[in-house]
Every structure is written in C-alpha cells, then in structure tokens.
Design goal:
single chain
C-alpha cells in the first residue's frame, strides 16, 4: 500500500473493501479484480496489492474457523504419517502431505514475478481479459468434467494438477477459488468437493502471501491510521468470508458454477466497454 493510498483511505472505505474481499475471495469471481474495480469506479485510490493481500488474513481466519474440524483431522493424519514413516498411510495422510508440494507453484511463481504481478498485471485490461478467459475455462470444466470423485479418491498427481491451476490466480482477475475449483472439476471432483478442497489448498498460499505483505506494510510504518484501516479491513474480511464459504458450499450443492462464469463474462465485457 503506497503512502498515498493509506493516507487517503478512510476507516469506512477499509471496512467496505474488507467486506468485498471476504465476499469475493471464496466465490469464483476474483477478489483482486473487485478490489481493483470497486475503488476505481467509486473514485477511490487503488488500495494496492499489499493492502489487498494483507487483508486476506481475515479470510484465512474464516477458513480456519469454518473448517476447524477438517484442519484438525488433516493435521493429525499428517503427524500420524510422519510417526509411521508412511505419507500414504491413509487418504487423509496423503491429502495433507500432498497440499505442501501443490502449494509450491503459486509460491515460486508469486515470488519470481512479484513486481509484475503487483504493478503492470493490475491493469484493468488484464483483469477484464482474465475474468473472461477463466469463465470460459470454468464452463468447459462444467461440460467435460465427470464429477465422480470425492476428496478421499484424490491421488498425489491429481492434487498437483489442482495446485498448478491455483497458480493461475497470480494473474489478477483469474481468482484463486475459480482456478482451483476448475482444476478440481477437471480431475473429477464434485462441485462442492472441489470448492471444499479449494479452501483447504488455499491455506498455505493465502497465509504466506498475507503475512509477507503485512510485514512489508508494518516495516513501511503505516502510522496509526494505516494500522486501524488494516485491522478494520481484516476483521470485515473475516466476517464476510465466513458467510461467503457457507453460501458457496450450499449453492454448489444445488447449482453449478455457470452463474459465476456468466457474471465474470459480463463484468469483463463491461470493463472492456468502459475502457475502450
């Protein structure tokens, strides 16, 4: 977050952006796109990639609370695998230990192209194109995916494919949730199962990116107002993120991702129309 952005941001704007972050982080519509588009059309300063990433800690908290039982089960399974020197001991053990290498692509690419991702890639044109392209891939996954597997049937390599898809989220507008749900559908998961795994797979990526950006922001000395805005944004993101998780899981049990794909295409076309 640049000095100009945090000086001009009000507490009400920080809360509003936190709510937007929480609502759109887990829906396959791209939180980055909305945190870039909403301020632009409201006449506010761009909050910046650092602020956007830091308030993801709120959505991280939402995942830990909502999936506390799953996280505890996978943690115990991972430790059990280490104790017995068998990382494939149970489906839960395999799932837990497969998440680690599946997080490597987004971490390596994110660090390698950090400057580009936080500057040129935040262009509204790039965001509009990414919204449309990922929507088309989601529709393709809906059409071709068998959706006949659950999380317990995921193999190591299928999990790595989803991890590679997650790396698409580094392109603003692609959506981490949308990318991983798409990957889950392509490897055969049902819609709700793909979303559930998307949340669990995102824990290392969201946590790592959020903590790094938070430390950078704190090192820059944001001042009292900046710290207040961060706290408000993170809190608002946690509350709206928790509600968003429940909504998405219930929605996908009855419907597909078509609604979100059409919304993405409409938003992308509208953005291009306003720009050109």
């Amino acid at each position: 977050m640049s000095p100009e952005s945090h000086e001009s941001m009000t507490p009400l704007q920080a809360i509003f952006l936190g709510l937007v972050q929480g609502l759109t982080e887990f829906l396959p519509v791209s939180s980055t796109a909305h945190l870039r588009v909403v301020p632009h059309f409201l006449g506010w300063s761009d909050p910046g990639a650092a602020f956007s990433a830091a308030i993801q800690l709120g959505t991280l908290a939402a995942v830990f609370i909502y999936f506390a039982g799953d996280i505890r089960r996978l943690t115990l399974a991972a430790l059990d695998g280490v104790r017995h020197r068998d990382l494939r001991r149970t489906p839960d053990t395999l799932l837990a230990w497969s998440i680690v290498p599946a997080s490597v692509p987004i971490v390596v690419l994110g660090l390698s192209f950090k400057e580009f991702i936080t500057t040129e890639a935040r262009s509204l044109t790039v965001i509009a194109a990414a919204l449309i392209v990922l929507a088309l891939l989601l529709l393709l996954a809906e059409r071709l995916a068998p959706r006949n597997r659950d999380l317990g049937q995921l193999t190591f390599w299928r999990i790595q494919i989803i991890g590679l898809c997650q790396a698409l989220a580094l392109i603003p507008g692609c959506s981490r949730s949308g990318s991983t749900i798409m990957g889950g559908l392509f490897v055969g998961l049902g819609r709700a199962e793909a979303a559930r795994f998307s949340f669990l797979l995102g824990l290392p990526a969201i946590g790592g990116a959020g903590l790094l950006e938070l430390l950078d922001l704190l090192a820059a000395g944001p001042g009292t107002d900046g710290l207040l805005n961060l706290a408000l944004g993170i809190t608002a993101a946690a509350i709206s993120g928790y509600a968003s998780i429940g909504f998405l899981l219930r929605f996908l049990e009855r419907h597909g991702t078509h609604t979100f794909a059409l919304y993405r295409i409409g938003l992308g076309l509208w953005l291009l129309w306003t720009l050109y």
